[in-house]
Specification:
Elements: H1 2-50, H2 52-56, H3 61-69, H4 74-103, H5 108-125, H6 128-136, H7 141-163, H8 168-192, H9 204-238, H10 241-258, H11 260-272, H12 279-316, H13 323-349, H14 353-378, H15 380-401, H16 406-425
Helix pairs in contact: 1-5, 1-7, 1-9, 1-10, 1-11, 3-6, 4-5, 4-6, 4-9, 5-8, 7-8, 9-10, 9-14, 9-15, 10-12, 10-13, 10-15, 11-13, 12-13, 12-16, 13-15, 14-15, 15-16
Length: 430
């Protein structure tokens, strides 16, 4: 338990710095660039992020699970993960640039930003296996510390660029430099700790097996990535970059809370999910985690509702006033993200990765259809409402429509029962 808590705290420290760069520096950048140019920058971020699922190709949770279950297979797992991520990240970058040049908006700054951010993908993705290696052993203090140093330096660079009045292209270059620095520190730490890249094994059989395990996760992640970005992409396509800027500015206040859900799950899953063989105990663990996640998610909702109407005018200025309703809608999504996060780990523990795909496809389809209806009438607010409704329909309706997902609905019911026990008796359930 202590090691899991420490692991969570270290991972949370990195996210706190992401909050600093994503909120403080990001909002400063939004104020500096204005809604139109900030919309161009965030459209580029969304576009490149859309292709990131190709870069990692599902090689994430599977690596942690396999390292936990087979601690003597480090060389094979790290070698396979590196090979897959290297080829995948190069492919992702090429596709992102080619697709933007061929089908995207004819904006020179946008294309250059996409190019710079695409060059960052291999540097950001290939050392991920090393971080997962440390994480699987609950030995992430130094890796996180080094990444935090890079994050602080990167934030300082962005602040310097703002103070110097730099053009939007330089902020794309800052993304590339940050990824290169993280690449250097993680590989350097692995070598310093006695790791040998030359000992990594690149057997086609291992790579093929990892691809087979990761393909459903990658497809689900690609669909989920599109679902998460379809609002910004459709706003830029059917509205204008100013609406993207409004939407993205509101997202800066709310989205960082979403990131805590996977942090918590990655910290708890090695001990309380992947290492549990008893099905009854596993389901009880999942339901209790879901209950706790939902209760924790109330904190950011209350916080944002209390300060939102003061924070946006103060930090962004009057030109971003239209972002306030978007913020209120998006912070409500955090509750659903937290509550649903353990179900993905539950499906993964049962090798039900393909079911993750259909869940993501349903959410994407609903989100896209609602965006088509709402964006033209309500702009950024319509995009936020579309995302909220897509989550609600997935969590409440989708799990109950199809028999293969009804165990997830039962877990929801059990989690809500645990919450009722806590509220009514003020005692934690056994």
């Amino acid at each position: 338990m202590k090691s899991s808590i420490l692991s969570f705290l270290w991972l949370a420290s990195e996210k706190l710095l992401r909050i600093f760069t994503g909120v403080f520096v990001g909002l400063w950048l939004a104020r500096f660039l204005g809604p139109e140019q900030y919309g161009v920058y965030m459209y580029a971020v969304a576009w490149v992020g859309l292709f990131n699922a190709i870069a990692w190709f599902g090689v994430g949770e599977n690596v942690i699970r396999n390292l936990v279950k087979n601690p003597d297979s480090d060389a094979e797992l790290l070698g396979s993960a590196f090979a897959i991520r290297l080829l995948g990240s190069i492919t992702a970058g090429v596709l992102a640039v080619a697709a933007m040049a061929s089908f995207g908006k004819s904006d020179a700054n946008l294309l250059m930003l996409v190019l710079l951010m695409s060059l960052a993908i291999p540097f950001a993705e290939t050392p991920a296996g090393i971080f997962l290696y440390f994480q699987s052993k609950l030995d992430i203090a130094l890796p996180v510390l080094l990444q935090n140093v890079v994050r602080i330096a990167s934030a300082g660079l962005r602040i310097a660029l703002i103070l110097c009045g730099s053009s939007i292209i330089w902020f794309g270059a800052a993304v590339l430099l940050e990824s290169m620095a993280i690449f250097v520190v993680l590989f350097g730490l692995y070598l310093y700790r006695g790791g040998k890249i030359s000992s990594w094994v690149y057997r086609w059989a291992n790579i093929r097996n990892m691809l087979r395990q990761g393909t459903p996760i990658a497809i689900a992640a690609l669909v989920a990535s599109l679902s998460a970005r379809v609002d910004q992409l459709m706003l830029g396509w059917f509205a204008d970059f100013s609406q993207v800027g409004m939407y993205s500015a509101a997202l800066r206040f709310s989205e960082f809370w979403w990131a805590f859900a996977p942090i918590v799950m990655n910290s708890l899953s090695p001990k309380y999910i992947f290492n549990v063989d008893d099905e009854v105990k596993l389901q009880a663990n999942i339901a209790k985690i879901m209950a706790c996640m939902l209760l924790v998610s109330l904190v950011p909702v209350i916080f944002i509702v209390a300060i939102g109407k003061y924070a946006i005018p103060l930090l962004l200025g009057a030109e971003y006033a239209a972002a306030l309703p978007v913020l209120y809608v998006h912070i409500c999504i955090a509750m659903l993200v937290f509550f649903d996060a353990p179900t993905s780990q539950f499906l993964l523990a049962h090798n039900r990765q393909r079911q993750m795909i259909w869940k993501s496809v349903f959410m994407l389809t609903v989100n896209a259809m609602l965006n088509l209806v709402l964006v033209s009438s309500f702009g950024a607010l319509g995009a936020a409402l579309a995302t909220l409704l897509a989550y609600v329909l997935t969590i409440i309706c989708f799990y109950r429509l199809f028999p293969i997902y009804r165990d997830l609905a039962r877990l929801q019911k059990q989690a809500l029962y645990y919450i009722w026990q806590v509220v009514s008796t003020r005692k934690l359930p056994d």
